[in-house]
Design a protein that fits this description.
The complex is a heterodimer of chains A (753) and B (520). Helices cover 72% and strands 2% of the residues of chain A. With 753 residues, chain A is an all-alpha fold. A two-stranded antiparallel ribbon of chain A has the order 1-2. In chain A, a hairpin with a 4-residue loop joins β1 and β2. In chain B, a hairpin with a 4-residue loop joins β1 and β2. Chain B has one domain. Classes of the chains: A mainly alpha (753), B mainly alpha (520). At the A-B interface, β1, α5, α6, α21 and α22 of A face α2, α5, α6, α7 and α9 of B.
Chain lengths: 753, 520
């Protein structure tokens, strides 16, 4: 069944892309089909106990397989991902104008994300998880970067991709270590591991989770991602994708329970994120950013609870995750509607919406109350479980974690109230465009879910409870309570609500500080990225200047310096002054021609001096008793000089002038190259390996080849294959020259001028 | 007189033609093509040269399949007086080169018509170059290696400058030629030093002279062999454009005709890697501890420089030039892992598999990518800035989607062959405990992902600044593009996704990888 559903998503992606070409709305509604089907299927699975594994081996040698597992946890997450997904698609069909641009790829990209997220929550192999994790990053980038020509937006998208992409790498590295240490790649078979490698793996996975779930200091990408259209923010950046890190922590925390750094690291990240996020939510005046920072804070709370690690805290974390997905999606959806219908999200500009947008107000108020933990809503029950869980702790942990969670909860109440008062409170009446029912329906559904969840708390328990048991078997004794009685926990959470209410009220009435605060850290990250870019450009300017002579000189110098070690290998005793007197004038002639070649100014004389060098060398060969070699060399030199002369006819007579310093440099490089070759030759002559092959060659030439010109016999017999190869080289050259010599058509020549 | 000649007994070595059939097919195909089209000039300007070339590549591929079966049962065969060896590794690489020739010949067809060039020379040069590549991959003697390298290169030097109307193309060809000639000279120098140090140019001879009496560690205690290895490495590093021998790459990729770049980035690179691997595995196996650090250095430098400099570009061809440098880094990691002396049995084969799979996957995806670039380059092949890709989705949705799939593959996004390629490389590196390399590779792949996704996003941007009445605006609709080119791109995309999704061909890969590991 899983395969069918995943395939349905893929088909949906193409169908949405195709049908979206005519109108954005059709595309979105087509895209909603696959998530809706998935939700329906998951709902039917709810009350059955099931634990089915679907596996397709992918690459055998690497243990790379697509492995999915349908258990209670997967079902819960599927309902959240696909259910909210389907609602968001419907919502988006109202959010965008039917004729909006990008209809052919926005719905498809959003469905691609939905597909990736579904795969992620169902994954039961670390590699499957990794693959879908990466796909969520990519599809998120495509969605944030969508349609925005704004530079800021693209920078934000890039920042998000780099941070979450970096997290993906850490995940890969961590999984590689984990797979090695625990000898399995199946997520549900992971055993607790220990040792130094376990610590590294734990840190890497914690890092990965922190980037995806926007923990301090990696949270900076999330506010920037708010540039995306609101359906994207509601879906990715509050309800689902940012929960991926949480899910990762939840499913691996049992593996790392023996690792010392796991818990302190998680608590540090979680607590600091929770408080800093809540603080951010109190500072901003863009309603969407308030929600984004609120999300960061809530994610911090989830990480904190999971790091505490007691069964009760895990239970609270998963309950809170569920409740948060519902109320935060609803809140984003209402903000999007307000944005579309009034044209602003600034809480200092909005006002009087209670009358003009009553339904939106009701949904927002209920969801915000659920977020604040006001009784009689789903959020209350979950928050209550969280507070109970931290109050159960002992000693320093109680003070530290308990204090932080309660402080965070107070601030949550405060920013929830500030949000509601800011958006809907008294103020100048904002003009409002007509309601679009496609936006209202999902909002009402999600808003009602917060109430229904509380009324039917028993059903919620029967869904969340078994899911948590998948993570921690000892959590089966806990359940969400409709009314806990007057326990310390309830008293605490009631006082949290009261204190938070007071603070929120006093904060929301202040209107000074009209400037929107800039995100601390984000600018630093962007500056670092820009610095890297600038550095890259400078580096290109320096090493990729396009000057051929400089490339050549650099390579030549490097290669020559590589010969330095040969100096030690030279055996001075093996050196002789000369074997024949004539070598002296010939040697001088060669050197003189070479030096002359460096100074002549016309091309013809350069060709001739080079020829002189070659002829001198062939003379040296002849003196060494190798007339055949000398003959060959002489022929080659002649042909080359003739070739040069023919070619020179098409060039100007003189070389272009060369500056003095550059000329000197070139000569220095040339001399260096010459010295290097000389040193290497002397060194190899100092330490000969075995007998010189000349005896064997000359014997073989006469015996087998039946010829006395050894070079010729080598060419035609002994190394005939090489000669054949060289013939092919020459043929290639000939064809090449033929092709190059074709003059361009007249029309083309005009274009070139 | 004639009788006399006939009586002369020459004990020439027996040539097992059937085993070198792909090589012969490619080279003879080239010669035949130029002969036929010189005799029948009317064939020059139509579909014939492209079809002939693609057919030659396909025929060579048929031989490849046949030889694969043969060497699978007999084991490695040495042919032509032991100067070449044919084993599953050679056959695999030959197959990859044939695929590249096939795709590139399809790209050439529409390109030459659009640019108004005629003549079979382009195709002939591709075939010649490919035969050089096959020779390079199978050479057992450094001199044969060198000849292979020359045949491979010279044809491509010419191809790079064959766009006679574009000054950039001439410059590219000239630069490539001069720098290539220098690197060939260094390579030759390396051969000479090897001969000086070991007394042999034959790979097996070199490796035997490197063993001491117990047949273990290097006994030739000479700095000469080290420098020789370094120089040979430079020659290969130049061909595969590994940093710091990559300097030509961006300039040449930008200036050369786009389909030629497709060939350079695929077949030339594959052949370069294949030759490097054979020379170092067979010839310098005993010195693995000496040259493995070189590989590591090249790999790290290529990954860092390639990915870092790519993001600062605004010309798509230059971007992809740098990205090909990054890919070279990945492939080098595969060799590094495959050469792990500690884990011949496990990490070695994993690394070899990673290396071979990367070659195959990269060849197909890069040929496809430059195929799209070829299609949308407009006449004169000059429209390659990022802005020229803006709004491509609107005018040509199919092309944009194909290009996105290829770029996703280059970025290593799951369900494409690129993901599996990178995953295999990183897993192999981790297996042989090269954590630094694996880490650098992972970082580079994130930076590179930004680059590819930048192109993708730009294609999907809705506003297209392109003035609609611009004379050479990109035609909309697929039918405006040459069928052969579109087919090549489509084949590449299908293969890229199929390789990324379906788990087939693992046995082939394992066999070739084992043959490769056995060379050491």
């Amino acid at each position: 069944m899983i395969w069918v559903l995943l395939a349905a998503h893929i088909v949906g992606i193409f169908a949405a892309s195709y049908s979206g070409r005519s109108s954005m709305r059709t595309g979105l509604l087509v895209a909603a089909i696959a998530p809706a089907l998935t939700t329906a299927w998951a709902t039917t699975q709810l009350l059955k106990p099931n634990d089915t594994v679907y596996e397709m081996v992918w690459v055998q040698g690497l243990d790379l397989s697509l492995r999915f597992r349908v258990d209670s946890l997967a079902i819960l997450m599927t309902i959240l991902v696909s259910g909210i997904g389907a609602l968001v698609f419907v919502y988006a069909s109202g959010y965008f104008k039917p004729s909006a641009d990008g209809g052919s790829h926005f719905p498809a990209s959003l469905l691609l994300f939905s597909f990736s997220m579904l795969g992620l929550v169902l994954a039961d192999s670390i590699w499957t998880l990794f693959i879908f994790w990466e796909l969520t990053s990519v599809s998120s980038f495509l969605l944030v970067g969508f349609k925005n020509l704004d530079v800021d937006v693209r920078i934000a998208a890039r920042r998000a991709l780099l941070i979450t992409g970096g997290g993906g790498l850490a995940l890969l590295a961590g999984f590689l270590i984990l797979a090695d240490a625990s000898n399995t790649t199946v997520l549900s078979n992971l055993e607790p591991i220990s040792g130094p490698n376990a610590g590294i793996a734990a840190a890497l996975l914690m890092f990965a989770a922190a980037t995806k779930s926007a923990q301090m200091p990696f949270h900076i990408w999330l506010p920037g991602a708010m540039a995306a259209p609101t359906p994207v923010s509601a879906y990715l950046h509050s309800a689902t994708m940012v929960k991926a890190g949480i899910l990762l922590l939840a499913s691996t925390s049992a593996t790392f329970e023996d690792v010392a750094i796991w818990k302190p690291l998680g608590l540090t990240l979680g607590i600091s994120t929770m408080l800093w996020g809540a603080f951010g939510a109190l500072r901003h005046r863009d309603a969407k950013l308030i929600l984004a920072w609120g999300t960061i804070s809530q994610l911090g709370l989830l990480v904190t609870l999971l790091s505490v690690g007691t069964p009760k805290a895990t239970f609270a974390a998963m309950s809170l995750l569920t409740a948060h997905a519902v109320f935060k999606a609803a809140l984003f959806i209402t903000v999007g509607e307000i944005d579309i219908r009034t044209g602003t999200r600034d809480i200092y500009e909005l006002g009087g919406l209670t009358k003009s947008m009553p339904i939106t107000f009701a949904v927002a108020a209920i969801s915000a109350a659920s977020m604040a933990g006001v009784p009689l809503l789903l959020g209350f029950a979950a928050k209550e479980a969280a507070i109970e869980a931290v109050l159960d702790l002992k000693g320093t942990e109680l003070w530290l974690v308990g204090g932080a969670v309660i402080g965070g909860a107070v601030m949550t109440v405060a920013y929830s109230l500030r949000f509601v008062l800011g958006v809907f409170g008294p103020g100048p009446q904002t003009s409002v465009s007509p309601r679009r029912s496609a936006m209202t329906v999902p909002a009402v559904a999600l808003g009602a879910a917060s109430i229904a969840g509380y009324i039917f708390l028993g059903s919620v328990n029967s869904i969340v409870g078994p899911a948590v048991v998948e993570l921690d078997e000892k959590a089966n004794v806990y359940s969400l309570l409709r009314w806990p009685g007057f326990t310390p926990g309830l008293l605490t959470s009631l006082s949290v609500v009261i204190v938070g209410f007071l603070i929120g009220y006093s904060v929301s009435t202040r209107t000074e500080g009209a400037n929107a605060p800039t995100a601390i850290g984000a600018s630093f990250a962007d500056r670092s990225i820009n610095e890297v870019l600038t550095f890259a450009r400078e580096l290109i300017g320096r090493i990729q200047h396009g000057s051929l002579p400089v490339y050549l000189a650099t390579m030549m110098t490097t290669a020559s310096l590589a010969a330095t070690p040969f100096v030690t290998a030279i055996d001075p005793d093996s050196l002789r002054r000369w074997d024949h007197v004539l070598q002296i004038p010939l040697g001088f002639g060669v050197v003189a021609s070479a030096v002359a070649g460096a100074f002549v100014t016309t091309r013809l004389s350069a060709a001739l001096t080079l020829g002189a060098v070659g002829i001198g060398v062939s003379g040296l060969f002849a003196l060494h008793g190798a007339p055949d070699l000398a003959l060959t060399q002489l022929l080659v030199e002649t042909v080359v000089v003739v070739g040069f002369v023919i070619g020179l006819g098409r060039l100007s007579r003189r070389f272009p002038p060369v500056g003095g310093a550059w000329h000197a440099t070139r000569m220095a490089v040339a001399v260096l190259g010459g010295i290097a070759v000389m040193v290497a030759l002397i060194a190899s002559a100092s330490d000969p390996t075995g007998l010189p092959p000349v005896a064997a060659l000359s014997e073989g030439a006469v015996e087998q080849g039946g010829g006395k010109n050894i070079v010729n016999v080598i060419l035609t017999d002994i190394r005939a294959l090489d000669t054949l190869g060289e013939v092919v080289v020459l043929a290639t050259v000939a064809i090449g020259i033929m092709a190059l010599a074709k003059s361009p058509k007249p029309e083309g020549r005009k274009a070139a001028q | 007189m004639i009788e006399q000649l006939l009586q002369v007994q020459t004990d020439s070595p027996e040539v097992a033609w059937s085993l070198i059939a792909p090589l012969v097919t490619l080279a003879l195909g080239g010669i035949l093509l130029i002969t036929i089209s010189s005799l029948i000039p009317s064939l020059k300007d139509n579909w014939f040269p492209a079809a002939f070339t693609a057919g030659t590549a396909a025929a060579a591929m048929v031989f490849v399949v046949d030889i694969w079966d043969r060497v699978s049962s007999t084991g490695p065969e040495f042919v032509v007086a032991n100067s070449m060896s044919v084993d599953q590794y050679t056959v695999f690489v030959t197959g990859v080169i044939c695929i590249s020739v096939f795709l590139v010949s399809l790209l050439f067809h529409g390109y030459l018509q659009r640019e108004g060039f005629s003549g079979p020379e382009w195709y002939v040069l591709i075939l010649m170059s490919a035969s050089g590549g096959v020779l390079l991959a199978s050479a057992e003697d450094l001199i044969v290696t060198f000849i292979g390298l020359e045949i491979l290169s010279i044809a491509v030097y010419v191809l790079a400058s064959l766009h006679l109307r574009r000054g950039e193309s001439q410059e590219a060809g000239f630069k490539y030629f001069l720098l290539g000639a220098l690197s060939s000279a260094l390579f030759l120098y390396g051969i000479a030093l090897t001969y000086g140090a070991t007394g042999s140019t034959r790979l097996t001879g070199i490796s035997q002279s490197g063993l001491n009496e117990r047949g273990l560690s290097p006994a030739v205690d000479s700095s000469m062999i080290l420098v020789a290895m370094a120089l040979l490495m430079v020659g290969f590093a130049f061909k595969v454009s590994a940093v710091p021998f990559h300097l030509w790459t961006p300039d040449v990729y930008e200036g050369s005709p786009s389909p030629v770049v497709a060939f350079m980035a695929s077949a030339v690179k594959v052949a370069g890697f294949a030759g490097m691997l054979r020379v170092f595995f067979v010839g310098f196996g005993p010195y693995v501890e000496d040259w493995r650090p070189l590989l590591q250095g090249l790999a790290i430098a290529s990954l860092v420089v390639g990915s870092l400099l790519a993001i600062a570009q605004s010309n798509v061809k230059r971007m992809l030039a740098y990205s090909s440098i990054t890919h070279a880094g990945f492939i080098l990691i595969g060799i590094y892992a495959a050469a792990d002396p500690e884990s011949r049995s496990n990490g070695g084969v994993l690394g070899a598999e990673a290396f071979l799979f990367y070659l195959l996957a990269y060849t197909i995806m890069v040929a496809g990518t430059f195929g799209v670039i070829t299609l949308i380059g407009r006449r004169d092949d000059g429209r390659h800035s990022l802005d020229d890709y803006r709004g491509l989705f609107k005018s040509n949705p199919v092309l944009a989607v194909l290009m996105s799939a290829l770029l996703f593959a280059q970025a290593g996004i799951p369900f494409t062959s690129g993901f599996l390629a990178k995953f295999r490389v990183i897993a192999a590196a981790a297996q042989s405990e090269a954590y630094v390399l694996a880490g650098v590779a992972m970082l580079a792949s994130v930076v590179a992902a930004v680059l590819y996704l930048r192109i993708v996003v730009s294609m999907f941007l809705v506003d297209s600044p392109a003035e609609a009445d611009e004379p050479d605006a990109l035609p909309s609709g697929l039918s405006a593009f040459p069928l052969a080119g579109v087919t090549a791109v489509a084949i590449a995309v299908v293969a890229t996704i199929a390789l990324g999704v379906l788990p087939f061909g693992q046995e082939i890969l394992t066999d070739a990888a084992e043959a490769m590991s056995a060379m050491r």
